[in-house]
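Hey everyone, long-time lurker, first post.

I ran two proteins through the pipeline my lab uses and got sequence/structure pairs for each. Pasting them in order. The first:
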Amino acid sequence: MNTYLYRLTFTGPVHFGASGIGMENSHVTLTSDALTSALINALCVLGKADETVEILRGDNPGFILSSLFLYQRSGDGTVHYALPKPLCKPPVDNETIQNMGKEIKKIQYLCPEDTHAWLGEARLSFDGISQIKTRSESLIKTAYEEELRPRVALDRQSSNSSFWRCGVIHFKKGAGLFGLVHIRDNAWKSVLESAFRMLGDLGLGGERTYGFGTFEFSGFETPPASWFKKERNQKRYMLLSSYYPNSKEKPHIRDIFAAWNFFENRGYIVSGRNTTTFKRKRLRMFSEGSVVHQPVRGMLVDVTPDDAQALGLFHRVYRSGLAFLFPWEDA
C-alpha cells in the first residue's frame, strides 16, 4: 500500500458545517467521512460511484483517506503541516505534568515529528515538552480568518424577511488544507486525481451555490520520510480520520482505545450533484486525535433512511468509518 500527501489551495471562502445556532459555526478542517462522501459524489459524475463504494466495502479497501488538516507555507517556502494533538498524555514525568499541565492542555496542533515523540515511549524532558509547545504555537498562527457573513431570506408568499449569519473561513495566502491517502491498488491513483480535480470545480463543504469551497489540487506526492513509522514495536497510534468499528472490533473497543473522543455524525443526503431534503441515519464516531493500542480497520457504514424507496431514493447511502492511523508503515 502506497501513501501519498496532497494539498488543497482554496480559491474562495469555505463553510464546513458545525453544531450550533443555524449556520453561524464553521469548522476549519474537514473530517474524512465528509471528504470520502464528497469524492464519491464527484466520482458519480465520472460514472465510478458504484465501483468505488464496492471497493471501500471490501475486506481490503482500495484506498483510505485521512481527514483534512491545516498547512501553511512560510516566507522561505517551507511548508508547515499541523496534525491534531493526540488525546493521550505525552510521555513526561508527574513533576512536568504538575508544572506544565495547563500549558500542555492548551496545545491544539503538533507537527508530525512532534506527534511521533508524543506517541512514543521515550521520556520527554521539561525542555523537550516546552520546545514542542513553542513549535505548536508557531505552526499556523496566520493560516486563516473567520467571518460571520450577514444573509437575508425572503418568504415567497408574504415577502417577509429573516436575517441570519453564515460562518465563513478564509484561508490566507500560502495556507490551506492537506490530506493523506493510502492507495492499495495504484490503478486508483489516477482515478482519485481526476476526482479531486472534479471536486475542486464542484466545491467542498456547504454554500457551494455561492461559489464556496472551490480549490486547486496539488497532486499526489510522497510524504517526508520522518512521518513514517519509527519504532519497531509501536505501542500507540493516533487516528487521523473518523472511525467506526467493524463487527470484529466492537467487542474489544475498551481494550483497543487508550484515549478517545466521539462526535455525532448527521446531515442531509447528497446524491451526485443533487442535494436532497432527506436526512441520513445518525452515527456516533470516534474523532481524529483518538489513540489506540493496536491498528484498527473500521468499516463503511450504511446510513440509508429506513423509508428510502418511499422517499424516492433508490440507492444505498454510506458513511466512511475506515481508520487512517499515524504513524504508518513505510510500504
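...and the second, right after it:
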Amino acid sequence: MQDILIVVDMQNDFISGALGTAEAQAIVPKVVEKVKGFTGRVIFTRDTHFENYLSTQEGRNLPVPHCMEGTEGWQIDAALPVLDAPVFDKPGFGSPALIEFLKGLPALERVEFIGLCTDICVITNAMMTKGALPEVPLSVRADCCAGVTPESHETALSAMKMCQIEII
C-alpha cells in the first residue's frame, strides 16, 4: 500500500517572489516539517512558464511573469528536501502527467496535497485526481496550504470538502 504526499508549487516566486504572500511565507516551515516527517512517497509539482507566457491565456489573465523555467523564482524552495522525489513540471494549473503517474501506481492507498496556491493549483490537481481516481481517499492539509488571499484559500477548501476531499 502506498501513501502519497503531493507538494504543489512550493516555488520561490509563489513564496517571496513575483506572486509571493505573507501567508505563503508562513507555511514554509510547516511544509518542510510535513515533507521531512512523511513516511510515504513524496512528489512535487513545479509551475513552469516560458518566454511566451504573456501571450498564453493565463498570461493574459495574470500578466505577471512568474516561474519562468530556469530562473530562481522557478526553483522549489531550498528548505524543501526534493532529493530524488519526482518533480512534475506543469505549464498550467493542473498536471495531466501527474495524474497518469498516480494512475500507474499499484496499491495506492491515500493521496494528500499541500502547497500553493490552494485556490488555483492545489484545488485543480486535487480535483483532477478525484476525477481520475474516485475511490482513492484524498486529503488537503489546510495549514500547509495558502491561497492568493485568505478568503480564496477558505473558499477553495470548502469547495474541495464538498467534493469529498478530506480537509485536515
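Reply from user beta_strand_b:
Welcome! Quick read of the second one: The mean pLDDT is 97. The chain has six helices and six strands.
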